[in-house]
Structure formats: structure tokens, C-alpha cells
Design brief:
Helix content: 25-40%
Shape: globular
Order of helices and strands: HEEEHEEHHEEHEEHEHE
Number of helices: 7
Number of domains: 1
Radius of gyration: 26 Å
Strand content: 15-25%
Length: 272
């Protein structure tokens, strides 16, 4: 009798141990699946930017052959830079319809909005070559053309629009915050002197008051939840004649603005 009771206790204990192991296994599997999805989603976001960056690099390299400019009138390597479409809500960001793992927050604040904008500006500038690569073709005609790639389109969730909210302070954020894993501030990275880029012998710099590179012309410092915004890479490209005589060299900038600003700044957008 005692032996049977002892055996029953052992069976119950064994069943309990099995249940505990099974629960741990199920919980662990769920964690791995969730974590794996998060990693896959982040890799997808990163891969899109990397594909764009590689196509920019390829275009800048294969556009020129010694003695022959094979870009005229069109570039040989097309850009593969689809727009990132962001929808910002009270507790998440959707990128191309999927929840982003890059931007995690419980409640949307002014600091969070500025962080999102700063990161989108950084990624756009990075994948387009940081103003160091000579991208886009030159025009045959006597003209100074502005050409753009729209990197990101941003809008706010419908629940935020009726409240008439606005988010401010982007310029201060860019000037005071350092980029992830870097000692460089966003503003120092995004708006740099381009001493080798010039207009009639005068270098393009962010300090020239007439130049597009001055920060008050580049960025919207107040974002309204009722509006849509674009982050775009802008290139000033001269025509073939002015390039040949050295009157102009290409200059590159990064911009943020509403649709009307985009239409003014960009004579041509290559990724409609």
C-alpha cells in the first residue's frame, strides 16, 4: 500500500516536472518567434537602405568612363531607392504599413518625434553618399537643375490630426544630440562644408546666407499633425557646358518640408 502511494507521488511529481518543462519550452519558443520576427523586420528595414546605398555607389562609379561620359543623356545604373512611408501614431510608427522595431516608445513626445526625424535624415544622407558621390546625370542644356530623391514620407495618424498638435525643436535637437554609437552630432553630419564644391569659384558652405545649405532653409522646425512631410536628398547639377569650364560643381543637401516646399526645391524627382 505504501509502495503504491509512493509510486503515485512519484508519478505526480514527474507529470509536474514535465508540465513545467513544457511551459518553459512553449514560452521560450514564443520569445524566439517574436524576437526572430523583430530581427527579420529590422533586417528588412536595413536592407532597403543598403540596396539604395549600393545603387547610388554604382551609379556614381559607372556613370563615368575615362574619356567618355556614358551618363549622357541618361545614367546607366538606375537608382533603387523606394520611398519609406512612415505613419506616426501615439505609441508606434508604421513603416510601409508594418510596425517599426527601430522606433519604440510608449507615448509619443516631442523628443520622440525629433528623434524619428533626425534618424530619417541621417539614413537618407548616408544612403545617398553623404554628398561625396557624384550622382545623377548632367543636362545637355544651359541650366542649373535641382534633382531630388525622396527618402521618406511622413504623416501622423488620423487620431492625432483633429487635436491640431504640433511638434517643434528639431533644429535644437540636431545641434545638441549625438548620432547612435557616434560622437558626431546630427547637425555636424548633415550640414557640412563642401569646400570642393563651388559656384563661380565660391565654395558651397552652410555659412553662405544665399546658399541652400543654411539650416533655416533646409528644415521645417515646426511640424503640424495635419500635414504631410517629405525628407529628401537634393542635388544642384549644372549643365554639361558649365561643368566642362568649371563654373559649377555639383552640390548636395538634405531637406525636410511639406509638399509645396518639395515642389519648389526640386525641379526633378527621380523616384516618383
Amino acid at each position: 500500500m505504501q509502495h503504491r502511494q509512493f509510486s503515485n507521488k512519484m508519478d505526480k511529481r514527474a507529470m509536474s516536472d514535465v508540465m513545467i518543462v513544457l511551459i518553459i519550452f512553449i514560452v521560450g519558443a514564443l520569445v524566439l518567434i517574436t524576437f526572430g520576427y523583430s530581427i527579420a523586420n529590422q533586417l528588412k528595414e536595413d536592407s532597403d537602405s543598403e540596396i539604395c546605398r549600393l545603387s547610388v555607389l554604382a551609379q556614381s562609379q559607372f556613370r563615368k568612363v575615362p574619356g567618355i561620359d556614358i551618363s549622357l543623356p541618361k545614367t546607366v545604373i538606375p537608382l533603387d531607392c523606394p520611398r519609406r512611408r512612415l505613419k506616426i501614431s501615439e505609441n508606434k510608427v508604421l513603416i510601409n504599413g508594418k510596425k517599426s522595431d527601430k522606433y519604440n516608445f510608449k507615448k509619443l513626445t516631442q523628443d520622440e518625434v525629433n528623434h524619428i526625424l533626425a534618424e530619417e535624415l541621417r539614413m537618407c544622407w548616408n544612403k545617398m553618399g553623404e554628398g561625396k558621390l557624384d550622382v545623377f546625370e548632367y543636362s545637355w542644356f544651359v541650366d542649373l537643375k535641382s534633382i531630388c530623391v525622396v527618402c521618406s514620407e511622413l504623416e501622423f495618424d488620423d487620431k492625432l490630426k483633429p487635436k491640431g498638435q504640433s511638434y517643434e525643436g528639431l533644429l535644437d535637437y540636431l545641434k545638441t544630440k549625438k548620432m547612435p554609437k557616434s560622437e558626431i552630432k546630427y547637425s555636424d553630419y548633415l550640414v557640412r562644408t563642401q569646400a570642393s564644391r563651388y559656384h563661380l569659384g565660391i565654395p558651397y558652405t552652410q555659412y553662405n546666407p544665399w546658399n541652400y545649405g543654411s539650416t533655416d532653409k533646409i528644415y521645417e522646425d515646426k511640424l503640424l499633425t495635419s500635414e504631410k512631410y517629405s525628407i529628401y536628398f537634393l542635388a544642384w547639377k549644372s549643365d554639361v557646358l558649365n561643368k566642362a569650364i568649371g563654373a559649377y560643381t555639383p552640390a548636395y543637401f538634405i531637406g525636410l518640408g511639406k509638399e509645396d516646399k518639395l515642389s519648389i526645391d526640386c525641379q526633378q524627382i527621380v523616384n516618383n
